[in-house]
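Re: the request from the purification team.
They wanted to know what the chain is likely to look like in 3D before they choose a buffer screen. I agreed to run a prediction and write the result into the notebook, where they can find it.
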Amino acid sequence: MTRPAIRLGDLRNSFEGVIPSIIGTIDDDGMPNISYLSHVYYIDETHVALSNQFFSKTAANVRRLGVATVMVVDALSGAQHLLDLQFEQSCDSGEVFERISTHLDVMSHLRGHEGLMKLKSADIYRVTQIREVLAAAPLTPAPEPRPRCDRIGHAARIISAISHEADSDTILDTALDGLRDEMAFRYLMVLLPNEDETILTMVASRGYDRYGTGAEVSVGTGVIGMTAASKRPVLIADLTRARRYARAVTGDSAQIPLPGLEAPQCQMAVPMLAKGRLRGVIFVESELSFAFTHEDEAALSLIANHLASCLLLAELQAQTIQPSANLASATHTDSRRFRFRYFMHDDSVFIDNDYLIRGVPGRLLYYFVRKFSESGQRDFSNREIRRDTSLRLPDFKDNLETRLILLRRRLDEKAGPLRLCRPERGQVRLEFDGLPDIEVVGAAPALS
């Protein structure tokens, strides 16, 4: 019986760097040279890329003779294969180079070796032959092959569901529910960047024992932050060697702990891009190694970019909504008091000494509470908010809709004396249990 041809795509578990690959070359005198590789990168069904980091003898041999042989090992099955390679070109820029560089930066960070795995160039090889190496002692029993999954079909249904929604709140929930129910991502979250794209704030999650709305991650830190910085997907199939560094995803400065698994084994993050700009990051994780595949990564990227576009469109549409003239006015009779403190230096808000939120959402909440205190106003339209220059909103691109979602969900999660509801689209209403005693730390800006 003829054995089926081995496809390069079937070996992608061997390219994750869990078990280092070995590259063999010879010099002009026939002297062999063996080096270890951290990763072999899949490009397409006939090409791989090797990171040129520090093995100068190997690089010199390849430059002279143009050939190499690499042994790769599947960390799940133990299967070994030899790849005969023909050197084609070396690149120090472009998509392949940037993607490998990002992956190396993430792995260096997770292993605590920042700066040691700096990529010099990416060497592109054509794979001329793939040979299976028969194991002397095969694994018993052999692991079950992963069942095929129609990722594109699942992604199409999620994208379709998102496309039928017009409201940012509903769009976000539809996307997360679809990722959980259709694609079986048990633990996931969406984070949005602040106005200068230095901080990501968690706005919605699924699967964790707490929501963590408002938790922050610094751009450039951990899997999430480095995905945002590079605007490229990052998939870490096995975190065994990086476990104690994986918690770096919780960020350095967040005052609200980011939800996360105690011992994640596989993590994946993809950027949400629209009009070339970062609109957020979707992050998923699992307790199982190799829980996610590159097919998952491709499907999640499709959904992430569509989600970004839909949120941007909803943001633009919300600017044109006129408030209803028939909106019933709100009344307030609760005379209990609570302490509301606003710190101007970072727009942070504390209620009864408990931290609530900061940044643009904190500034918005102070605006609402102060307006109520001065005039009794509790209903605000998006148009009115955008036109008030005292709020110093950067511009429409900075997601007023999603920042209001973040503020509302954070208030709901705290279950304190303040709430933000939406009597209709394009309108928000402040609700109280009691009355605020406002304290401003720093000079208060004048309200228009």
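For the purification team: The first helix runs from residue 56 to 65.
Please add any questions underneath this entry.
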